[in-house]
Amino acid sequence: MRGLVRDTVLLVVATLILGTAANLVPGRQLSWWGKGFEPPRIGVDFNFLDSGSADAMRTSLPGVVVLDTRSATEFATGHVPGALPISYTELQAELTPERFGRLRSAGAIIIYGAGDETDVEQLVAQELRRRGLAPPYVLIGGFLAWQGSDLAVVGGTP
Amino acid sequence: MSWPRNRWLHRLLGLVLGGIFLYAAHAKVLDPRPLVTIIWNYRILPPGPVNLMAIYMPWLELLVGIALVTGFKRRAAALCSTGLLVAFMVALGINAVRGVNVACGCFSTSAEDVSNAWVLVLRDLPMLLAALVMLLFPPTPRAVVPIQPPTQH
């Protein structure tokens, strides 16, 4: 029993040493204590929008940008017309000055994901808000709701 | 009942469970930053310790994987893996009860890799069973045959 406790402590200590050392390597560092994470707030970071209203906004207002947070494969199999793919985990790299300029000059930004879960969309909206953009709209029900409403889809097999 | 103490069973379980832990750890060890979002999305930990968990948990998974595969400190690794698996199952179970399907962060660091939380809890069960066998039924030590001193004629 004592041997088991000693070996477990050894594993934990090795974990602490390796984790600490690895977190000192530039390029993969994290702040030791998380402090920047506040849940995205509706009405502050984003607003919800249903498919019909999103389509009306997209087709009637000039300069509406639609962002697709799904994977590249899902995007290729079908997406909202004119949508731009965007990855939350690669957001910093994907927000090139050109793309950010386009978002800044957009009349409105609509973000959608795969389905009912809107966590990723809300997080993307929050990140855009943190960069000074107006609160984007998050599509309720995501691409599934869009398809369910028989709205226009681009790409994929008919 | 002696089969749970079979040396070869422990080697096999260590190889399989250790392999799973190594596979799970590799992407997170290379870059733990996306893991912060995934852990935060579980909505269980307060913001502060989320980063600490993202910094250290992948390394614990890696060391546990190495220990299980090689057999070096295998029982301690089985204890750690039991703790990790129970923690994962509790976190997933809480979100399953909430009705939220989270990105589990089990084998990838994609926040969009969302799965049914109950399925993920069930997937962890056989792994927990394997860890418990290695923890609770250590192999029986080989019988030591005393060396006989040479007989003098």
Summarize the entry for a quick read.
Chain A is α/β, with parallel strands linked by helices. Chain A has helices spanning about 1-20, 50-60, 70-75, 90-95, 95-105, 120-130, 140-150; strands at about 45-50, 65-70, 85, 110, 135-140.
Secondary-structure blueprint:
The complex is a heterodimer of chains A (158) and B (153).
Chain A (H helix, E strand, L loop, with lengths): L1 H21 L24 E3 L1 H10 L3 E5 L3 H6 L6 E2 L5 H4 L2 H8 L3 E5 L6 H12 L6 E3 L2 H7 L10
Chain B lengths: L6 H24 L2 H9 L5 H24 L3 H25 L18 H20 L17
Helix pairs in contact in B: 1-3, 1-5, 2-3, 3-4, 4-5
Comma- or semicolon-separated keywords:
heterodimer, A: 158 residues, alpha/beta, 5-stranded parallel sheet, 7 helices, 43% helix, B: 153 residues
Word description of this protein:
The complex is a heterodimer of chains A (158) and B (153). Chain A is α/β, with parallel strands linked by helices and 158 residues long. Chain A contains 7 helices and 5 strands; from the N terminus they run H-E-H-E-H-E-H-H-E-H-E-H. Chain A has helices spanning 2-22, 51-60, 72-77, 91-94, 97-104, 119-130, 142-148, and strands spanning 47-49, 64-68, 84-85, 108-112, 137-139. In chain A, strand 2 (64-68), helix 3 (72-77) and strand 3 form a beta-alpha-beta unit. Chain A starts with a helix and ends in a 10-residue tail after the last helix. Chain B is mainly α and 153 residues long. In chain B, 67% of the residues lie in helices and 0% in strands. Chain B contains 5 helices and no strands. Chain B is elongated, with a radius of gyration of 19 Å.
Helix count of chain B, per DSSP?
A: 5
> How many strands, which pairing sense, and closed or not: the largest β-sheet of chain A?
5 strands, parallel
Cα distance, first to last residue of chain B? 46 Å
Unreliable residue stretches of chain B: none
Radius of gyration of chain A: 21 Å
Number of helices of chain A: 7
State the share of residues found in helices of chain A, binned by percent.
40-55%
Structural class of chain A: alpha/beta
- Give helix and strand order of chain A, one letter per element, not per position: HEHEHEHHEHEH
**Rounded average pLDDT of chain A:** 88
| Structure class of chain B | mainly alpha
Kindly report how far apart the N and C termini of chain A lie. 64 Å
- With strands numbered from the N-terminus, the spatial order across the biggest sheet of chain A is 1-5-4-2-3
Order of helices and strands of chain B: HHHHH
| Total strands of chain A | 5
Assembly state (oligomeric) = heterodimer
Shape of chain B: elongated
Strand content of chain A: 5-15%
